[in-house]
Amino acid sequence: MVLIIISLTVVLIILVNQYLNRKKRFQDSNKLEQIWRYRYYLKIPFFWCYYITNNADISKRTLWGLLKGIEQSNMNWMYTMDEVSDHFKEKYKE
């Protein structure tokens, strides 16, 4: 019983925090909030199976990537321009 009350309290705190910080990036969130936002990934296999069984005209790997990108958008997972430019500087370092 105590475990249920603690779990419900944690979920309530996370929901209130998420409501107040709606525009907060995924990367700027604390670990508990990041774990909560990972719930969006749970839908991906179901959508993937649905589109594959309905003969989607797209490769399986591309479909998985698109679905993952859509859910990352829902998670507010985005990069700043500085992060993107630093990534390319490291990747294509001469």
Summary keywords:
0% strand, 5 helices
Low-confidence stretches: none
Please outline the major beta sheet.
Answer: none
Number of strands: 0
* Helix content class: 55-70%
Radius of gyration: 18 Å
In terms of structural class, how would the helical and strand content be classed?
A: mainly alpha
Distance between the termini: 60 Å
Secondary-structure element pattern, one letter each:
HHHHH
Mean pLDDT: 86
* Overall shape: flat
Strand content is under 5%
Quickly count the domains.
1
Helical stretch tally: 5
Describe this structure as you would to a colleague.
The protein has 94 residues and is mainly α. The chain has one domain (2-89). It has five helices and no strands. Helix 3 packs antiparallel against helix 4. The radius of gyration is 18 Å and the shape is flat. The relative contact order is 0.11. The mean pLDDT is 86.
